């Protein structure tokens, strides 16, 4: 029983602290990583007086009477450590106190065992964090992914591939940061709490600010504050930060996640597309070492020049509707034919998006730019100069999912006000995801925002590249309340 194992370990802890010292010391001596011990193994072995100090967790123990073998692991690797009755100080106490899972500090010399295994012969050892709860020995056999996500620290501890994935994720964002910084973008931070949520169509989270005694929203996008910085005179800005959307959970969606958004004055969506393609290719190459990846059973190449797919043409081909002339009723009928059940308050833009996601998007497998959608689906983008029914927007689409969005930014305050008012009308009809009218942002536009292009990409891209559900690529995803 687990309770018996815990009780036994606590008894060992008491005996150890009675005979030696605290099993949770405040300080440890400076040591080296396991990888460094291996890289300098021959030098350690030749100089018998030279002692190495290692810190790590014991993952196994084999007691053979006068000798105890252990596998000590740190973040860089694993090494065999050997405790002996003749060579190890306090051998008797350590032998009776140590358990797999304990974090220890060991000091000793390099030697090679009879089985030709490079090892550390322990001269001195001590427990620096006693594990009173045993590690699960059958973790890899667990099929309950929910349990692994709830006990993420154990999953990370026992699965080196998972730790490697999160190293890749760190590299993923760092490479985006490097590419933007080299291109002259300034990294900034903007508030998480907003009086008016903007920049996306989604339902926000609400929180109360005690000191100001008023409610605020957790930001659903980084967009509007960054655009204000363009008004304020910055030419290129970006932010990598957490955003929050009170929507459903599925393979591609979370409620809180990391997003990067960048904005460049005096550019448009055509120049930004070139930069984004180059940046994606740079990031993918850096993180995965290749531009061709196996994802969802398909061999996907991110190299070369990506196709540009016209939204109107693709919609007509796959959905059978001409967006230049079709009505809201036509779209609603099509949605019903596809088995969709749009809300009664859904506007034309929402209906277009629903039909698009059912018909067009699944057909876009190779990386491409989906360009120039109807104005109804993008309230914050500039109208296309040759066709005011369209906006200058592009989406990076691959494997039937959206992996980034950018556009020429709308900087006409009157046009922006009218689109906000259309969104507010939808909210009044019951749409909780329609955008709110933001007077402060409109006032900023009235001072003049330069022509600009902006782009955003979330950690969904990393999840798709890893071919995993996004929740599995998050260190500590939110979970439903555990049933007792």
The count of domains is 2
- Tertiary shape: elongated
Strand order, sheet with most strands: 6-10-11-20-19-18-15-14
* CATH hierarchy: architecture of the largest domain: 2-Layer Sandwich
Alpha-beta content class? alpha+beta
- The number of strands is 20
CATH class of the largest domain: Alpha Beta
From the N-terminal CA to the C-terminal CA, the straight-line distance is: 19 Å
Q: Helix amount, in percent?
A: 25-40%
Give me the Rg, rounded: 29 Å
- Look at the structure and give the mean pLDDT: 93
Oligomer: single chain
Number of distinct helices: 15
The CATH homologous superfamily of the largest domain corresponds to Bira Bifunctional Protein, Domain 2
How big a fraction of the residues is strand?
25-35%
The CATH topology of the largest domain turns out to be: BirA Bifunctional Protein, domain 2
Stretches with pLDDT under 50, minimum 5 residues: none
Q: Largest sheet, if any?
A: 8 strands, mixed
How are the elements arranged and paired?
Layout: H1 2-19, H2 34-39, H3 41-46, E1 52-63, E2 67-74, E3 77-84, H4 91-97, E4 103-112, E5 118-129, H5 145-150, H6 152-158, H7 160-182, E6 186-187, E7 193-194, E8 206-209, E9 214-218, H8 223-231, E10 236-244, E11 256-265, H9 269-288, E12 292-295, E13 298-301, E14 307-310, H10 311-319, H11 328-337, H12 348-359, E15 368-371, E16 383-384, E17 387-391, E18 393-398, E19 401-408, H13 413-428, H14 439-447, E20 452-458, H15 460-466
Parallel strand pairs: 3-5, 6-10, 14-15
Antiparallel strand pairs: 1-2, 1-4, 2-3, 4-5, 7-9, 8-9, 10-11, 11-20, 12-13, 15-18, 16-17, 18-19, 19-20
Helix pairs in contact: 1-4, 7-9, 8-14, 11-12, 13-14
């Amino acid at each position: 029983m687990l309770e018996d194992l815990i009780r036994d370990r606590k008894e060992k802890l008491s005996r150890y602290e009675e005979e030696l010292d605290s099993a949770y010391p405040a300080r440890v001596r400076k040591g080296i990583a396991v990888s460094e011990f291996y890289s300098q193994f021959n030098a350690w072995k030749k100089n018998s007086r030279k002692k190495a100090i290692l810190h790590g967790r014991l993952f196994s123990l084999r007691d053979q009477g006068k000798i105890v073998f252990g596998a000590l692991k740190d973040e860089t690797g694993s090494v065999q450590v050997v405790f002996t009755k003749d060579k190890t100080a306090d051998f008797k106490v350590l032998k009776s106190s140590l358990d797999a899972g304990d974090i220890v500090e060991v000091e000793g010399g390099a030697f090679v065992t009879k089985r030709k295994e490079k090892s550390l012969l322990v001269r001195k050892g001590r427990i620096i964090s006693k594990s009173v709860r045993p590690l699960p020995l059958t973790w890899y056999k667990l099929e309950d992914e929910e349990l692994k996500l709830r006990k993420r620290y154990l999953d990370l501890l026992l699965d080196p591939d998972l730790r490697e994935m999160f190293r890749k994720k760190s590299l993923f964002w760092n490479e985006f940061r490097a590419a933007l910084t080299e291109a002259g973008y300034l990294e900034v931070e903007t508030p998480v709490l907003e009086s008016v949520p903007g920049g996306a169509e989604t339902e926000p989270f609400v929180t109360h600010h005690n000191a100001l005694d008023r409610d605020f929203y957790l930001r659903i996008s980084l967009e509007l504050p960054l655009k204000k910085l363009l008004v304020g005179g910055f030419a290129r800005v970006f932010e990598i930060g957490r955003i929050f959307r009170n929507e459903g959970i599925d393979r591609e969606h979370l409620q809180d996640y990391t997003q990067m958004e960048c904005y460049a004055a005096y550019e448009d969506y055509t120049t930004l597309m070139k930069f984004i393609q180059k940046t994606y290719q740079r990031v993918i190459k850096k993180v995965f070492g290749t531009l061709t990846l196996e994802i969802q059973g398909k061999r996907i190449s991110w190299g070369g020049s990506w196709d540009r797919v016209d939204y109107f043409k693709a919609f007509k081909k796959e959905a059978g509707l001409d967006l230049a002339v079709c009505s809201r009723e036509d779209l609603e009928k099509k949605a019903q034919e596809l088995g969709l059940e749009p809300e009664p308050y859904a506007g034309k833009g929402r209906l277009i998006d629903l039909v698009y996601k059912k018909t067009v998007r699944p057909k876009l497998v190779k990386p491409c730019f989906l360009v120039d959608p109807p104005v109804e689906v993008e309230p914050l983008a500039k109208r296309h100069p040759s066709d005011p029914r369209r906006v200058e927007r592009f989406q990076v689409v691959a494997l039937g999912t959206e992996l980034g969005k950018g556009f020429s930014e709308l900087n006409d305050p009157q046009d922006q006000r009218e689109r906000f008012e259309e969104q507010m009308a939808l909210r009044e009809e019951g749409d909780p995801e329609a955008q709110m009218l933001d007077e402060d942002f409109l006032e900023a536009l009235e001072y003049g925002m330069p022509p600009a292009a902006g782009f955003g990409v979330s950690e969904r891209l990393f999840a798709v590249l890893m071919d995993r559900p996004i929740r599995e690529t998050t260190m500590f995803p939110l979970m439903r309340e555990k049933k007792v």
